[in-house]
Amino acid sequence: MPANDHLVIFDTTLRDGEQSPGATMTKAEKLRIARILEKLRVDVIEAGFAIASQGDFEAVKSIAESIKESTVCSLARALDKDIDRAAEAIRPAERGRIHTFIATSPIHMQYKLQMQPDDVVDQAVRSVRRARSHVDDVEFSCEDAGRSELDFLCRIIEAAIKAGATTINIPDTVGYAIPEQFGETIRQLLNRVPNADKAVFSVHCHNDLGLAVANSLAAVSSGARQVECTINGLGERAGNASLEELVMAVRTRQDLYTIDTRVDAQHIVPASRLVSTITGFPVQPNKAIVGANAFAHESGIHQDGVLKHRETYEIMRAQDVGWHTNSLVLGKHSGRNAFRSRLLELGIQFETETELNEAFTRFKALADLKHEIFDEDLQAIASDTRQKEEDGRYGLVTMQVCSETGVIPRARLTLLVDGREHKVEAEGSGPVDATFKAIESLVDSGCNLQLYSVNNITSGTDAQGEVTVRLERGGRIVNGIGADTDIIIASAKAYIEALNLISRGGVRQHPQGADV
Ligand code: KIV
Ligand code: ZN
Q1: CB 139 within 8 A of CB 110
Q2: Which residues are CB-contacts of 424 (< 8 A; sequence separation ≥ 6)?
Q3: Which CATH superfamily includes the segment(s) 391-504?
Q4: Residue 24 pLDDT class (50, 70, 90 cuts)
Q5: Ligand 2 centre and the CA of 19: distance in Å?
Q6: Which of 175, 278, 492, 505 is most enclosed, with most CB atoms within 10 A?
Q7: Picking from 132-136, 264-268, 291-295, which range would have the lowest pLDDT averaged per residue?
Q8: CB-based contacts of 394, cutoff 8 Å, min separation 6
Q9: Cα 51 to ligand 2 centre (Å)
Q10: Nearest in space to 157 (alpha carbons), one of 144, 172, 142
């Protein structure tokens, strides 16, 4: 249980965040995000829903193997098979948590679960006990608590704590709550549940009415000591409460809150960028804390005020949340050992010497082009290398693109398909269009391109561009990522990665589906 002055930050970017349509991530991408969450010093990382698919299981397991400073958690419905699978996935973790849940609102119990309230309580108790047979750290959530009856919530929470739950989570699953009312619900629960002092009370708010952060803060004022949140507010529908807003609200208004988090806020902006790049969901310029304009002063009066005394118009310092913190780490003359030890400092460890060599060769090639290499470049090299090592049907061997004023752009590529080389070429409205058309002239994937976005990994025109390509086929959506100092090559890599992901297939279960 946390000290009363500590607010536990439970990040669910990799689970609820990934439930956003189109935000599916690969294992390598999830690991990359988990590492930055660890640097941020979040207390708990909800790494996924282990039973959803073999891929989800492996992602949770590899995060459990790599992360040392944060608790690693897997979601599980209140079912034996879910709980056992979650336990297996988090077993390697230094600190592991099982998060089990069942719906408690009349509408969910009647229509989704088709269960009587007494049976829901019994199932909750059985599941918490089973989770406790695997680990000491068990969270129980009352799904759709925001629309549940208070008396029933008191009853099921008391039973869950008696069965061994150490954290009780009150989700506003459909984003229906209003701050005063939600704060009052938490106050009532803490007063009325007789064994409330034996667990940490948590909230998990969705943003359907734009109130997720406000509702979470109202709950904190009423005594909640864990908030569940995501980077950039990513999540189902309108998203979850945003981590950066919650953390900075509590930290900036220490005159009102007697608690704080242990988050190292300097990593907030890099974490936001990474999540945005990997998911392909851009951050709106006026987004609090992490939007490009969050610290920009346009009007003359504001600029004048800030120059005379920063606090006239600024309540936080841009550098405290990680703006302008690119740190120069390595250059053209750095050797293998410096490269390896910087990767280790970043928490990146390759499984084989061949992978490390491949990454070092890419680093040298990049250093020739770019001279200054930043942490973000190293992370991109690492995930590019890992992606290449993961088997895929398609690969890029060479490419040549012609782009000239007054001439139709043309792309010529040599592609690898199932181990055989093929030459393709096509014209397009621009070099990227020509590249994608050339690839499709061979592959004929039947995919729809849903999103194409380019971000610079660091600043400057010599920076690597990281391209996200989102493809859809038969309702399945994947994001491919490619990085290179040449954004046309990065685009081809991203497109090919997306094709590899789509060709791997596989079905994932949604945790909040009806089959409990
Ligand atoms: O929104 C929700 O209710 C959830 C639960 C599974 C915690 O995501
Ligand atoms: Zn949720």
Answers
A1: no
A2: 412, 413, 414, 415, 438, 439, 441, 442
A3: Alpha-isopropylmalate synthase LeuA, regulatory domain (3.30.160.270)
A4: confident
A5: 9
A6: 492
A7: 291-295
A8: 415, 416, 417, 443, 496, 499, 500, 503
A9: 17
A10: 142
DSSP 447-471: -EEEEEEEEESSSSTTSPEEEEEEE
pLDDT digits (tens, 9 = 90+) for 415-425: 999 999 999 99
The number of angstroms, rounded, from the C-alpha of 38 to the middle of its chain's C-alpha atoms is 12
Q: Please tell me the distance between residue 143's alpha carbon and the centre of ligand 1 in angstroms.
A: 6
Phi and psi at 331, nearest 5°, equal -140, -170
Strand pairing class (465-473; 448-456): antiparallel
3-state secondary structure of 120: helix
Q: Where in the chain is the domain with CATH 3.30.160.270?
A: 391-504
Residue 407 neighbours by CB under 8 Å, 6+ apart: none
Q: Return the structure tokens found at 413.
A: 């590529």
Which residue in the block uniquely carries the two structure tokens 């990065």?
490
* Residues carrying CATH 3.20.20.70, the chain: 8-279
State yes or no: 240 annotated in a binding site.
yes
Q: In ligand 1, which atom is closest to the CA atom of 143?
A: 3
CATH code that applies to domain 8-279: 3.20.20.70
The reply, when asked if residue 197 is annotated as ligand binding, is no
Q: How far is the CA of 206 from the centre of ligand 1 (A)?
A: 9
What is the spatial distance between Cα 397 and Cα 391, in angstroms, rounded to a whole number?
15
Q: Average pLDDT of 326-335?
A: 73
Count of C-beta atoms within a 10 Å radius of residue 186: 22
Q: Establish whether residue 101 lines the binding site of ligand 1, counting it when its CB lies within 6 angstroms of any ligand atom.
A: yes
CB 139 near ligand 1, within 6 Å: no
The model's pTM is 0.81
Question: Does residue 328 surpass a pLDDT of 60?
Answer: no
302 assigned to a ligand binding site: no
Q: Which atom of ligand 1 is nearest to the CA of 16?
A: 8
Is 141 close to ligand 1, i.e. is its CB under 6 Å away? yes
175 lines ligand 1 (CB under 6 A): no
- Predicted confidence (pLDDT) at residue 176 exceeds the cutoff of 80: yes
